[in-house]
Write a structure and sequence with these properties.
Largest sheet: 8 strands, mixed
CATH superfamily of one domain: PRC-barrel domain
Oligomer: single chain
Helix content: 25-40%
Structural class: alpha+beta
Radius of gyration: 48 Å
CATH class of one domain: Mainly Beta
CATH topology of one domain: SH3 type barrels
Strand content: 25-35%
Distance between the termini: 128 Å
Shape: elongated
Length: about 260
């Protein structure tokens, strides 16, 4: 029976302990930890709900694991709840960010099955016992200080951490953020293209206004064009006006000029 090299604590908490003699020692209820070095030393099982005694097992006693049970070899140590309550642990410890604000708590962790070294913790915003809560991965290097029941981390929010398991609500919020970011990018790109198109149109119109230059004609040219375009026989018109002027009494010489 093979043992995975890395195990999730929550996977052990779902299994019963069975010894080499075939005796069922009940489910695993809590881990036995050494927080200063982030290591799992073993676990505690509850052989009976009506007895106050608990059984403590070392990690090196683990010899096999399946979907329902873990198999151990060797005797266990007996203890009571009052003694076990004094065992230091980081499970369900409150998490505080760099500003000292509480942002969640420890929900689970991944450890090496041989030596018990904890690889990373899984944290949640709310009670981890509630089904469907989200999990974020908190590395040991991000823990700046630890006390019984609380740890301080070098983060601001859980958004600074990679998500391990997302609830339906968290998936919806994450997708909403992605949609919002994409919409803003599309809006900015469309705005830049529109501004570029307007600048191109303005520069093209300015170039056309300078290209369509012309020379202002002289007054003499306008006068010549006007005379050339007249479809009038000036000699006949002048004779007709002379005849009409003979029948009238001239007032002065200017009146004889047909162009005045």
């Amino acid at each position: 029976m093979t043992i995975p090299t890395k195990l999730l604590l929550s996977d052990l908490l779902k299994r019963n302990v069975r010894c080499e003699n075939g005796i069922d020692h009940g489910p695993i209820i809590i881990p036995w930890m050494h927080p200063p070095v982030h290591r799992l030393l073993g676990w505690v099982s509850r052989p009976s709900s009506f007895r106050l005694q608990r059984e403590v097992w070392r990690l090196d006693q683990l010899k096999g694991i399946n979907q329902q049970e873990v198999y151990v070899k060797g005797p266990c140590s007996l203890s009571e709840d009052k003694t076990l309550e004094r065992f230091p642990t980081l499970m369900y410890a409150n998490i505080f960010n760099r500003s000292g604000q509480k942002i969640g708590l420890i929900a689970d962790f991944v450890f090496e099955s041989k030596k018990g070294n904890i690889q990373y913790y899984l944290v949640s915003r709310t009670n981890p016992l509630i089904p469907g809560t989200s999990r974020w991965r908190l590395s040991i290097s991000q823990i700046s200080d630890k006390q019984p029941g609380s740890i301080s981390c070098d983060i601001d929010t859980f958004e600074d951490l990679p998500i391990q398991k997302a609830s339906l609500k968290e998936e919806f919020l994450s997708k909403s953020r992605k949609w919002k970011t994409r919409f803003q990018d599309l809006t900015y790109n469309a705005s830049d293209r529109l501004e570029g198109w307007i600048d191109d149109q303005i520069s093209d119109s300015d170039n056309e206004s300078f290209d369509h230059s012309y020379e202002i004609p002289k007054d003499e040219d306008l006068y010549d064009d006007w005379i050339d375009n007249l479809d009038i026989d000036t000699s006949k018109e002048f004779n007709r006006m002379n005849k009409s002027n003979r029948n009238t009494s001239p007032t002065n010489e200017k009146d004889l000029d047909p162009w005045i």
